[in-house]
Amino acid sequence: MPQAGFDVKEELKKLPNKPGVYIMRDENDTIMYVGKAINLHNRVRSYFRTNIGRGPQIDQMVKQIARFEYIVTDSELEALVLENNLIKENSPRYNTLLKDDKTYPYIKVTVSEDYPRILFSRLMKKDKSRYFGPFTSAAAVKDTIDLINKIYGLRNCNRTLPRDIGLERPCLNYHMKQCCGPCTGEVSKEEYRQRIDKALDFLNGNYGVIMKDLQEKMEAASEELDFETAAKYRDLLASVKVVAQKQKMTDSSMEDKDIVAIASDDKDAVVQVFFVRDGRLIGREHFYMTHVSENPKEEILLNFVKQFYAGTPFIPRELVLPEQIEDMEVIEKWLTQRKGSRVYITVPERGQKEKLMELATQNAELVLSKDKERIKREEGRTIGAVKEIEKLLGLKGLNRMEAYDISNISGFANVGSMVVYEKGKPKKSDYRKFRIKSVAGPDDYACMHEVLTRRLLHGIEERHDLEVRDIDAQYGSFTKFPDLILMDGGRGQVNICLQVLDELGITIPVCGMVKDDNHRTRGLYYNNVELPIDTRSEGFKLITRIQDEAHRFAIEYHRSLRSKSQVKSTLDDIPGIGPARRKALMKHFSSIEDIRNADVSELAEVPDIPETVARQIYDFFHNVKQIEEE
Q: GIY-YIG domain: from which residue to which, for each copy (predicted)?
């Protein structure tokens, strides 16, 4: 419905015959869709015509348009850039969106420094350094940098050279013979520059020279019976061979290109990109596209190209696509401006590029197929399992389940746990732990009564507060009440929960998770009846996971309290030691055993511990030792 005061027909008449960006908004003034147009007048008016085959998704969007606005630009290229920015900023629900938060690693060589370094970088800047990449594996980049530094003895420190030469002792890498030590002044700029030049050759793919050099050094060390050095060169040679093998040659053009392929169905789309750098296939990556609905492949592909290459710092010389896309010349011009040199978009019909496109398409289809199988399996483990529990208990609309457990040792430090599962998955942000306040001694029923009462009362108070402030009471950690409460036990635990619910006037189904003599889940106790459950079913497996999770969460909390209590009781028995000094001691020594073994002078080094207190600490542990030995 159009907003009051917004006359669609009148506003359509005002549209200019110019390029620009149009923005569709709903009745809440939320941006639903952003698009660009060569001619705003023609493009925006087309949405409000009937029987033009726009598809169900666009028809649905048009019904929700309350108003539209537009921004005029000087060219279609400017409109393209503005459209990208607005989509990225607002993520409209009817735009096809790229799900991607990746930043790709580069190898950075600081050639402008007197003693250059080879570094790992997530950004490519205009800082006079040389960059290699992007690569798809951060681990592979780090391994490559480590290998190059070892082979050529390059520095990886942050010292400013030559200013800092001789000011500090050389680092461990120098003593391990993994750095030639320019900080010592033993290596001239010229000699170090030769090492860097060889490293640049290596990064450019010239592996033959270094492999030959390492082979000769290994053989020479072996002939001199220096087997330790020979083994070092052997390992380096093996590492170089691994790197060389990974750099698969794809063609002889030695150019940078991205091979972009797509696979889609009526709900999902996956784009696969092969990254070719200097003629070598250095890696691949797949990307999920959302809001695809019934959009044709070329439209999904167009949205991917605009969104991905608006964000990536590296633009290849050539973009290879499986088919023509709309506005290809404008996209080429835009990419050329972003790169600063000519960029080409091509659609291969034969040859090596076409074979790579086939391979990339197969990979995209495989990812899409596997992902659907994974989602299907995951839904079986989660939503499917919940439906099985619904059927077993005769419930409907089961979404949120809460499970509770109590942990203590002979009544010491009673604690309770609350774990939450929604749609069969743990919602850890809603987990809660309770330190029992009203129960002393091992009384699990009384502890459970307190935990449930506190949890539900807190929820009632939150709901009342939200109602008073006229805020939607659907949100909040305790505000949401469960559709089912699961108790770690049978009739006794269930009755405690039912008692609390009755006291508070709340109606929620309660089910007990009954265990056998071997402490394994055997069934569910519900409505005064123990229901057997198929131990091979997904529902049974979900119940077991929930029960184990509630137990784990309670145990971990109890263990942390025991640990804190032990530290506190030991140090707090010492005269002159309060919370601040206890914290200072633990920060300085890390453990009670270290404090026990320290002498008076070492204890006095701790901030806020005078020598008199240090003597008291020493005497306390010394006397304790004597008592223990006696």
A: 17-96
